[in-house]
Design brief:
With about 350 residues, this protein is of the alpha+beta class. It has two domains: about 100 residues, 2-Layer Sandwich (Phosphorylase Kinase, domain 1); about 220 residues, Aminoglycoside phosphotransferase (APH), C-terminal lobe (Aminoglycoside 3'-phosphotransferase, Chain: A, domain 2, Alpha-Beta Complex), CATH 3.90.1200.10. Helices cover about 40% and strands about 15% of the residues. The strands form three sheets. It has a five-stranded antiparallel sheet, with helices on both faces. A three-stranded antiparallel sheet has the order 6-8-9. It has a two-stranded antiparallel ribbon with strand order 7-10. A hairpin with a 7-residue loop joins strand 1 and strand 2. The longest helix has 19 residues. It is globular and about 60 Å long.
Amino acid sequence: MAPLFPDAPALEDFEPLSRNETLLRPGVDAVARSLGLDPDRLRRFPDGSLPVYAAGGGRVLKIYPPFDLPARDREAAALRAVAGRLTVPTPGVHARGELGGWGYLLMDRLRGESLAAEWPRIPDPGRRRLAEALGEALASLHALRGDGLDPLRGDWHAFVAEQRLTAVDRQRARGLDEHWLAQIPEFLRGLPLPGPAGGGPGRRAPDCSPGPSADLPLLHTEVMREHLLVEEGPRGWRLSGLFDFEPAMTGEPEYEFVAVGLFVSCGEVELLRRALRAYGYAEASLDADLERRLLAYALLHRYSHLPWYLQRLPPPPGARTLEALASHWWGLGGAAAL
């Protein structure tokens, strides 16, 4: 009997077949039948690194290759932890399981359209309101506490230490120019990052001494237009959904705003400032120190890819320092040295 799914023990095996519905659908259809869903109603969403299908009846089916089962478990745990507790809707989980070595989640389908798709037609006042709503939503996310977060906790300090050690090698593997690579070690050395008792809105953390990771909040880590849904109503635009909690983890709150600056406000400083103020930052703390810390977290981010960021948000002519990049991408401290 032929296997339901193709063989994909590692990411490099999965990537070539991730869009191949001829190979994937026998297994996906079998999962659907096991859940009492009609395979003929499955419609794959065009975006995303993993196969995700509208399954009818207000449900979404997400499929995970064998090596990514921990991400399935992480997403399920995060969605259960946030269910009904944020200022923005998130998908509820209806089923979690495995078939043929591959994993799946059956979740609610949220209302609305992708913010990435709708952005061009949203007027400036609507964009500003959405930025503020996003700040409020992230504040509600980071305020969560309780045993439900335990499956998502790791050793944040060990993670940051490892990312510091490997920062240059990871960016070199991505193809970053040597001009930028040479600046990374000194930039990170000169920038203390908050410890568990520091950071956060309007505060400063003078040292980075380790503390209990249990004190750290839940982070989505990839808040971008593609992972937000919006609706237009009589009172204007509103956030109608936040999804894709697959990379969720606990950590320092400022790590969250790497993606917000790069993939939501996309260099529009006023939008980022509105989000940060709505989150709870004091106006006086929106400064060059914060923008440099955000660039540091961008370098330390699990999925950091500076060459891609440079393509998405090219720096102005003459901007050749990491400080200038921080100013260009987050823009909180005025002009930076070129």
